[in-house]
Amino acid sequence: MLQIIICDDEADVVEILSEQLNTIIGPIIKYNCFKTTDPKEVIQLTRKKDIDLIIIDIEMPEMNGFETVKQARIQYHETLVIFVTNMDLYVYESLKYRPFRFIRKAHLEEIEEAVTSAIMLLKEKNEELSIRINNMQHIRCKIEDIVFFESLHNEVRLVTIKNEYIYRSTLKSIEMELKNKGFVRIHSAYLLNVKYIYLIKQKDVEICFCGIKRELPVSRTRRNDLILEYNNSLRR
After folding, report:
1. Residue 80 and residue 114: Cα distance in Å, rounded?
2. What is the DSSP string of 58-92?
3. 16 and 55 co-located in one domain
4. pLDDT, tens digit, for every residue of 90-128?
5. DSSP string, 96-162
6. What are the beta bridge partners of residue 217?
7. What is the pTM of this model?
8. Are 144 and 193 found together in one domain?
9. SS3 for 36?
């Protein structure tokens, strides 16, 4: 379930945005919406929960939207942000905070496209892979948390940012299941999530996750596919 915060010092704007949110994404996905006129409450909420999306005004009396977002992202830096404001002059300054969108209050109809696009991205980020480890263990892990798969004859080793698992499967079947999900076959024995690429070398690729760096081999015949998929991921 997605966690969303709407914050504006004008309570009527909060209600308008909340109603629009329900109309736009209510039929698409389950979500919790926290409504507030106090930016400090936004920060408190982000200390307790991983917030997926913050829709926030920039000009507020006690703490502006920029400072609020800066502090809110300390806990979970991948939170998407949509800034809402009356002042066009803030658009360039807002870029420092990597907003997903910048919406002017005079054009609140733009919120539909912004929210819909954000939800589609969040659905993709939260998509899970269901894996049967054995007769007793079945797991679900976020696809974006998967670093790579390694072939071990009739089994594969799954490496995520937190854990490793070994189970019966083939890289070919996994590659088909994860088609168009940002994975690329870099070697007959490895299927890699391009998100974790740090450096592509001539014969191997350096990956980085959770402060750990390691190298995986790259087949000569697959190196071009790796570079192509990596460039496509950057454009996405």
Report:
1. 11
2. S--SSS-HHHHHHHHTTT-TT-EEEEEES-GGGHH
3. yes
4. 877 888 888 999 988 888 888 889 999 998 888 877 788
5. GG--SEEEEGGGGGGHHHHHHHHHHHHHHHT-EEEEE-SSS-EEEEEGGGEEEEEEETTEEEEEESS
6. 204
7. 0.68
8. yes
9. strand
